[in-house]
Each structure stands twice: as C-alpha cells, then as structure tokens.
Write a structure and sequence with these properties.
10 helices, Adenine-specific Methyltransferase, domain 2, 289 residues, 35% helix, 2 domains, nine-stranded mixed sheet
Length: 289
C-alpha cells in the first residue's frame, strides 16, 4: 500500500469513516487485487489505498460520477465551480435532467454536498427527492481532492453491476471487502421489514453464498453488516466481531447515538487494539479509538 492524499468526495449513509482504523487492522497483510462491490462513498477504499482494485456498485449514477472524475476531472471541476449554494439553485438543479455524463456527475456531487445529510434517495419514478440541507458555507468543489481522487482511480476498474457479477473473476490471493446496504436501528421484525427496501434477507442469503464461494476459491473476505440474529444465522460458520460506531444520519444532533454492527470474516483475525472486551472465542467488541 502507498500513502495518498485522496479522500472520499461524497457524504454517504452507512459510510465507515468512524471504523476505518479498526477495519484496516483486520485487512490481511498481503493480497493481490482488491475488490469492493458496494462502493458508496469509498471510505475504506481511499483509506486502504490498494495498488489495483475493482470497484463497483449497483447505483449507476454513482459509478458514472466516479468514472467522470477518473477520466474527465477538469470538466467536472469546471461545472462545479459555477454552482453556488442556495435553496433556489438546489431545487433548480434537482429538477434538471442532464444530457451528458459530465453534467450528471457534477449534478450528483452538487446535490450530495447540499442536500439533507448527504442522503441518496429516489422516488418510484427514479427522481432524486431529498430536500435541501441547511449548512454553513458547504464546500461544493474541493478541487485539490478531486484531482487526487482522479489520480487514485487511474488503476481501478469501475463497474455498475450486481455484487455477484462484480466478484466473478476474484480468485486465489485476492481480497474482498463487502459493505452491503443495511439499516441497523430497526430491531426484530422492524429490521427485516425495513431492509426489504434496500437489501433484503434474500439478498443477504445470496451474498453469504457468494462469500462461501469466494472462500472456496481462496479469496480473503471481510464484511461489515448489521448486528442482528438473522444476519448471524445467515453467515454462520464465519468469524464475527462486534463494533460500535456513532450514528451519522439523524434529524438532530441529539438523536445521534452509537450503533452496534458486525464485522464478519472468512479468516482468523489478529487484533492489535488496546480496548477489547472478550465475548467469546470468535466475537469481540471493538471500541472507537
């Protein structure tokens, strides 16, 4: 791994910035190619900075944005520098239907930086419908970071595909980090019903089968997932770690608490953390550093 100045350029619900230190400690010491099929804001990718990587997500607008930054970053910057923060402009941009991928990328970044909590949500017609966010002087165009991101993406392959297709070519010696979309604040049946809309238990079963297939092929796999009984059952046989992180998506600061999540791996993990509470032979609690 090499040091880099590139950092995530998008805000993303469920992002792993709060757990980056712990997650990187759990990476294997050596691996060939890095795969991340639920890219989102890319916090783990940018922090890990693998030499070569295949990055993917089922969100086509997201991957289009990454591709434009990779290949046409100066065009994206030029468009962003013309866009100002304000409620009137926000709703004007939200209503637009860009004709080019360059315009789509600039619009995606602008809306992400100025909408409520950086949330990505579309209605049944596929139209972005998140309301305007109130901020103090938000940075819409971070030129220096976008240039660093573009450089960092040069040795990556970007795909807008389902995770199973994205991992078809992963083989012996490769490393896969999985971060499927999920909401952890809904317990029991509420958890199951709510997550049907974003990544259902059927999808989790498919992902578990893919993880077992990757294990047979000799891939190392690390996953972030919800700390829920149904998830533990679906991924039985793997190694489990429980991690606590702050909730970063909430209507008010007062409503932001701490969320318990699972880190699941298909290989034994050596921990080098000072504050570890042992729960069992294959489960520990990682506290934020």
């Amino acid at each position: 791994m090499k040091s880099t100045t590139a950092k995530p350029f998008l805000k993303w619900a469920g992002g792993k910035r709060a757990l980056i230190t712990n997650i990187l400690e759990l990476f294997p010491a050596n691996y060939n190619k890095y795969y991340e099929p639920f890219l989102g804001g890319g916090a783990v990718f940018f922090a890990a900075n693998p030499i070569t990587a295949q990055l993917s997500d089922l969100n086509h607008d997201l991957i289009t944005t990454y591709r434009q930054i990779k290949n046409h970053v100066h065009g994206v910057i030029d468009l962003l520098e013309k866009m100002e923060y304000g409620e009137e402009m926000y709703y004007q941009v939200r209503l637009e239907c860009p004709k080019t991928n360059l315009e789509r990328a600039a619009r995606f970044i602008y809306l992400n930086r100025t909408c409520w909590n950086g949330l990505y949500r579309v209605n049944r017609a596929g139209k972005f419908n998140v309301p305007f966010g109130t901020y103090t002087n938000p940075r819409i165009c971070d030129k220096e970071n976008l240039l660093a991101v573009s450089k960092r993406l040069k040795k990556t392959r970007l795909r807008a595909v389902d995770f199973k297709l994205a991992l078809t070519n992963a083989g012996d010696g490769d490393f896969v980090y999985l971060d499927p979309p999920y909401v952890t604040s809904h317990n029991n049946n509420g958890f199951i019903e709510y997550n049907k809309k974003i990544f259902s238990l059927h999808d989790q079963v498919r992902l578990a089968a893919t993880m077992r297939e990757l294990t047979r092929k000799g891939c190392r796999v690390l996953m972030s997932n919800a700390n829920h009984a149904a998830i533990k059952k679906i991924y039985s046989g793997f190694y489990f770690l429980k991690a606590m992180r702050p909730s970063i998506i909430s209507g008010t600061m007062e409503g932001r608490g701490r969320i318990s999540e699972l880190l699941i791996s298909n290989y034994p993990i050596s921990l080098n953390v000072k504050t570890v509470d042992t729960l069992g032979s294959s489960e520990v609690v990682l506290r934020d550093k």
